[in-house]
Amino acid sequence: MFTNQNKLKNWLLPVLFFVCSPALVSAQKKESPLYKNPKAPVADRVKDLLGRMTIEEKVGQLSTLLGWEMYEKKGAGVVASDKFKKAAAANQTGMLWATLRADPWTQKTLETGLDPYKSALATNALQKYIIEHTRLQIPVFIAEECPHGHMAIGTTVFPTSIGQSSTWDPMLIQSMAAAIAKEARLQGAHIGYGPVLDLAREPRWSRVEETYGEDQYLNSTMGVAMVKGFQGLNNMLNSGVNVISTLKHFTAYGAPEGGHNAGLINPGRRELLSSYLPPFEATVKAGALSIMAAYNSVDGIPCSASPYLLDTLLHKQWGFKGFSVSDLGSIDGLVMTQHVAADNTDAAVLAMNAGLDNDLGGQIFSGPLLEAVKAGRVSQQRIDEAVGRLLTQKFEMGLFENPYVDPKAAQKNARSTATVALAHKVAQESVILLKNESSALPLKKNLGSIAVIGPNADNIYNQLGDYTAPQDPKAIVTVLEGIRAKLPSAKVNYVKGCAIRDTADVHIAEAVAAAEQSDVAVVVLGGSSARDFKTEYISTGAATVSQATTGVSDMESGEGFDRQSLDLMGKQLELLQAIVKTGKPVVLVFIGGRPLNLNWPAQHVPAIVSAWYPGQEGGNAIADVLFGDYNPAGRLPISIPRSVGQLPVYYNYQNSSKHDYVEGPAAPLYSFGYGLSFSSFKYNDLKTEVSEAADLTLHVSVNVTNSSARDGDEVVQLYVRDDVSSVVTPVEQLKAFSRIHIKAGETKTVSFVLHQNDLSLLNQQFQKVVEAGSFTLRVGAGSQDIKLEKKININKNYKL
């Protein structure tokens, strides 16, 4: 026995030495995979990770699930929900959407939702669970709605996009976008949905407020500003304060037939390429890394299943480096709405093979897509391409190394003093003075009394627009509160008077009495996109319209609330007419999400101010304008029609026989680019210089003088008309603009530089060219307020 033990010991010694040698132990350790090496090139990391993934794990990366269902509040903390755990176990979930969103659709309130600190706890909990309970530990993307502020509790609420574009100040909007991105990123978000680049050529459509208006150049400029603000200069995704920008909605979504949200649109190919696509091309070339396919079809091809849009144009022609995502349920719509797919598997095949990379909602790029891959109807190569695009951005953002955020930083930076001041600035610049007869504005601060009347005078959520989370009422300044702050010693007589839509609760007599007891009346009317818990919603989040006239919400705009007419709803006009009848000085303040009928006010009210949805600082900004503490210079980004019978009424229509109607003019009430100021400006000395070298360059300058006694901003606009062309072109087209501050009596020279693309058209062969001939340059303060014109000649043809 002793001998046998010695033999065993002698045999084990070399084995133990082999096992316990430090060098050999280290060699035996599992080598860290390449994709976890932060020093390795991103392309190599993506290739390595793809090679380790199962088809189920890959498809999991292509599904974006509804995020607000994925967390649970427990005491002072937040944990991953059972639903999230099941999604992670079934196939690692790659992305969540609207995790931090709160609104009536998600049923998240100020009480049940998350403040910024707990938002960071929630996203950390989700990342921690994924990393600790999945094989490959791929961090999850968190995508959030961010069009005019992160749609979450406790964040800064800026003016909606139609107000942002009314500033005509892209650098200000870039600063705003950077502030939105920082608030979202510090709470754990990685992707911000926005900007919305749809041309709003149909004001009956419910989502006008989300757009930058009717013009492709203004939309492009504002869109590029948003992308740079979101992603940082040169795409600083790993900064910890930037997010990926998702462009919406690709494409031609904003001019549906009849104004029906997600409805048909059938532009010609030239119009599609010349008008609807340039904002997307400009923002893609500015570095945007995500794009959303629209619900609609274009010429019979659904945008969610269009190889031309999603592959040929986006990747092959524009060089897009990011990933595409469906709108919520739009792949399902290939079956249910558009009837181009027989079932969900067919829909998965159509969308994936067309080039769509990600499914918002995750109903199709899940079981149906797996079935299609296993049946050989979608290639592994195409799956790897889509997954690779998403993984690339996760690596670029540094999520594998830094998946967590600091809750204290989120709490500290949300709605900071600086971002509130920025919201105030954007709101000020967005205010448009539409009428100021006999210098009715600014009002004097020594008023003894003032009546503040109307359904939007003191309504927090009517002021904020759609895609807004519940917010602390103390953070929102209404018009009534803004006026009270300006006039601490005056008697302020407030009466709501009526609702936006509800005709049951009307107090016009009380409003008239308040006006009669006051020196002046400010009447605040318009619309509302305020969602409430009485409104019903379809699966995409769009609201279901109620036909009732009593017991209804104010909501007459916002996703799903398309209009038949553009008249003020309810008893609003009757209220205004009664106040005007008192003979007291009246100022109308318009707050709303789309152009509405202002014909009667334009004839009978001395002063009209448009603020769209001005955000949380709207009341202060409007009061600043009313009492002269801010000199307005906002300009219309969309024309205001006289009647729905005029539609479409956008300014840059193609040369055609357009004439007046039997009932009235064809021209809009207020045209694109229009807006007044408390200052007056004169234009002179328009100069041009054409350089016809290899690259055509046009230098334009004009002197602008502030001829008033008051400092102010002027928005100088340059329009171009191609006088004779081989195809029909617009009567004029905005090509440059500049918002400048000019002191009283001062003259400034404003200079613009145009290039080949600015004078180009698509010829009959669909080639982009500049045709030799004459062009008319028109400079002024609006599309119908041209101060100076000059013709130039281009002596040779250019092919771009």
UniProtKB/TrEMBL annotation:
Residues 1-27 form the signal peptide. GO terms for biological process: glucan catabolic process. This is Beta-glucosidase. SMART domains: Fn3_like. SUPFAM superfamilies: (Trans)glycosidases, Beta-D-glucan exohydrolase, C-terminal domain. It comes from Pedobacter westerhofensis. Residues 714-783 form the Fibronectin type III-like domain. Belongs to the glycosyl hydrolase 3 family. InterPro entries: Cellulose_Degrad_GH3 (IPR051915), Fn3-like (IPR026891), GH (IPR017853), Glyco_hydro_3_C (IPR002772), Glyco_hydro_3_C_sf (IPR036881), Glyco_hydro_3_N (IPR001764), Glyco_hydro_3_N_sf (IPR036962), Ig-like_fold (IPR013783). Keywords: Hydrolase, Signal. It comes from the Bacteria. GO terms for molecular function: beta-glucosidase activity. Pfam families: Fn3-like, Glyco_hydro_3, Glyco_hydro_3_C.
